[in-house]
Specification:
Shape: elongated
Strand order of the largest sheet: 2-1-3-4-5
Number of strands: 5
CATH architecture of the largest domain: 3-Layer(aba) Sandwich
Number of domains: 2
Number of helices: 12
Strand content: 5-15%
């Protein structure tokens, strides 16, 4: 693995057992909140860790950086990828209160909905409603969003499938993609590499593609519509309030677009529930 692709924390862990005492003390201090390095000057870090400025310089060079600025730049870049370890901070902006959590959620929703457009949502609703098959994908935490979205729309749009299923590979589904299909991918950070492969294959097939992702996702020509959700949270972990809200908005619009056919599906499903007597009454 090229040295430039090794993370800041991994560099420290690789070296820590062989460091001189002062550098080891500094390394252990950094590992508690490595993301904070992005906001420190070298002299500030030295003062907090109780070491000299020269110790800071020696450590960053030993880790493979040309100087402290290069190390700090690396940390800043890694923070944008969404690593909880890098996002956690020793000094938090707000206390862990209900009011602070509510404020963050409101801010996330406001930023997300301000960036959406009715035209984008109308396009997505039209593509999903008219598709021969709707393929819905998500990896890691995104699998939960994909499963929820599919479960909701399956009640009135049965031609949808969550991929990949247990014991399946994504290629086994890619082989069945057709031009009249629609692919919905949940790709909120941190994404796996398969997401780009999946979207590119869908583009080559000619099907419509939708990516529901985070606010830091860049511009792309691979996807027909990108819906960005603000995921900034009050702590080390991302907030997914806006992802759930965008799902809810799409699901409601899709149900309304399904018209009489969708309502008939719900009637049939309610009758089946009653016949099976499988749902609690309270």
């Amino acid at each position: 693995m090229p040295s430039s692709s090794i993370s800041f924390v991994k560099r420290i862990l690789n070296a820590i057992n062989d460091l001189p005492d002062a550098e080891r003390r500094l390394a252990e201090f950094i590992l508690d909140f490595p993301g904070d390095l992005a906001s420190y000057e070298a002299r500030e870090l030295a003062g907090y860790a109780g070491v000299s400025n020269a110790t800071v310089s020696r450590l960053v060079r030993r880790l493979g950086y040309s100087d402290f600025s290069a190390a700090r730049h690396s940390v800043r870049s890694e923070k944008t990828l969404g690593s909880p370890l890098m996002l956690d901070a020793k000094q938090r902006d707000q206390p862990d209160t209900i009011a602070a959590g509510l404020a963050y959620s409101h801010a996330s929703l406001d930023a997300t909905f301000a960036a959406l457009s009715d035209q984008a949502l109308n396009d997505v609703v039209q593509w999903i409603s008219r598709a021969r098959m709707v393929w819905i994908a998500g990896y890691r935490s995104n699998q939960a969003f994909a499963a929820y979205f599919r479960w909701q729309i399956y009640q009135f749009l049965p031609l949808c499938q969550l991929i990949p299923g247990p014991g399946e590979t994504i290629a086994e589904h890619m082989a069945h993609f057709e031009k009249d299909d629609c692919l919905v991918v949940f790709g909120v950070r941190r994404r796996v590499r398969q997401v780009d492969l999946l979207l590119e294959h869908a583009r080559q097939t000619g099907m419509k593609t939708v990516l529901i992702t985070d606010h830091l996702y860049g511009e792309t020509k691979t996807v027909n519509r990108v819906l960005r959700c603000d995921t900034k949270g009050p702590g080390a972990l991302d907030s997914h309030v806006a992802v759930a809200a965008v799902c809810s908005l799409l699901i409601t619009r899709l149900f309304h677009a399904s018209g009489a056919h969708g309502r008939r599906r719900l009637v049939a499903m309610e009758a089946a529930h009653e016949q099976a007597d499988e749902l609690a009454q309270n």
